Amino acid sequence: MTKLWTGRFSKETDHLLDVLNASLPFDQKMAKQDIQGSLAHVKMLKDQKIISSDDYDQISQGLTSIQKDIDEGSLPIEGAEDIHSFIEQELTLRIGQAGKKLHTGRSRNDQVAVDLRLYTKESVQSIQALILDLISMLIQRSKEHLTTVMPGYTHLQRAQPVTLAHVWMAYGNMLKRDWIRFQNAFELMDECPLGSGALATSTYPIDRQKTSSLLGFAAPTSNSIDGVSDRDYCMEIASACSIMMMHLSRMCEEMILWCSAEFHFMELDDAFSTGSSIMPQKKNPDVCELIRGKTGRVYGHLVTLLTMQKGLSLAYNKDMQEDKEAFFDILETVIHSLQVMTPMIKSAKFDVEAMHQAALGGYINATDCADYLAKKGCPFRDAYKIVGELVAYCIEKKCSLNDLVLDEMQSFSSLFDEDVYDAIDLQTCISQRNVLGGPAPEQVKIQIQELERFIETR
Ligand code: ARG
């Protein structure tokens, strides 16, 4: 394997060291960014008269031809320590002497720092676009289910009636915060480390403002030691990814339950389900389980990143090469999970009747029944107790509150009247919760509008 670092050494490195040291198998993902960074660097070198126009022309054409061959798949990426070495070697093979001038006034520490930021910025933008797609899908499905009543749960026990739209909008709001978290992280990391050199910049009159703006960063980083050794942004984005995966995982857990025969609220499309090798009847929500499982994998990588950096003295240390496999895997896992979530939810079918039936059971209108008595003048605590007794009576009788005749109700409180049936009807229970953020269709419409506005203004 050809090395960039020659001269000082009198013999070849051990093969085992080469294997341990190599990052090419995974950092080749940053080939495009490495070329982009080099193109900006040489343009700046030419403008600053550090290299000649002729050298610049040869180098930039050489780099462009390498990019073209990589795109076409005609240039196998192999035989070097890392992507930075590979591209420089290939350039020198193609254009000779001028290629050796590319590395003037910069270091590989510089390169890896800028390449990874460029790569991360692109990935974050892809993730953000996918989050918006998923929110749009939740909005679409919510509009179909504004009046689809279902039990809302606490402790996984039926608690109060909500609607499917209300539940989807809960997730929509989580995803909105996720989008903002990525945006905040993006803005904080949008600084260009190129020109930091190995750690202490360069003796050449390089123009860091120029390379920063050529590469589309908001500004150059302020301190060169920090510039080459900062991986905060990887951890911050990994945290945003972890939190977002936690949201997807909760949504998946919910759907796994809903797909069970016990709930029967939902059926996934065949395209997003799997079968069993032995049980012919099975239709499994593997996609949801995989996303739930991959959430743990993303958390694990976050811990890898934090641990990798915690004991490192300034500035660059080779430990930092360990960031990439973990970080790339996080980004890919998140992108893939989001990509599959949207069409899975789009194609899912909901059993509105099963949801309604579940909402009828479990006495989820008991709070409404107590509120009914309280509104008629009974102190809420007393009303609560009366309805508790009423529920115990119904459990004994194996019926719901709505099944009781008025006489039975009146034996618990004389305040009960004919209008109680309307007050504890599920649709009434929903429409009466006409409070900001609540499940009443008017309120969920407002929640939908807010998220629509959020998407439109991105
Ligand atoms: N491959 C290295 C990494 O991924 C970058 C090269 C810097 N190497 C060095 N010996 N300073 O972090």
From TrEMBL:
Residues 7-300 form the Fumarate lyase N-terminal domain. Residues 363-430 form the Argininosuccinate lyase C-terminal domain. Gene3D superfamilies: Fumarase/aspartase (C-terminal domain) (1.10.40.30), Fumarase/aspartase (Central domain) (1.20.200.10), Fumarase/aspartase (N-terminal domain) (1.10.275.10). The keyword Transmembrane helix does not apply. PROSITE patterns: FUMARATE_LYASES. GO terms for molecular function: argininosuccinate lyase activity. Keywords: Amino-acid biosynthesis, Arginine biosynthesis, Cytoplasm, Lyase. Its EC number is 4.3.2.1. It is found in: Cytoplasm. Its main location: cytoplasm. InterPro entries: Arg_succ_lyase_C (IPR029419), Argininosuccinate_lyase (IPR009049), Fumarase/histidase_N (IPR024083), Fumarate_lyase_CS (IPR020557), Fumarate_lyase_fam (IPR000362), Fumarate_lyase_N (IPR022761), L-Aspartase-like (IPR008948). It catalyses: 2-(N(omega)-L-arginino)succinate = fumarate + L-arginine. Pathway: Amino-acid biosynthesis; L-arginine biosynthesis; L-arginine from L-ornithine and carbamoyl phosphate: step 3/3. It comes from the Bacteria. Belongs to the lyase 1 family. Argininosuccinate lyase subfamily. This is Argininosuccinate lyase. It comes from Faecalicoccus acidiformans.
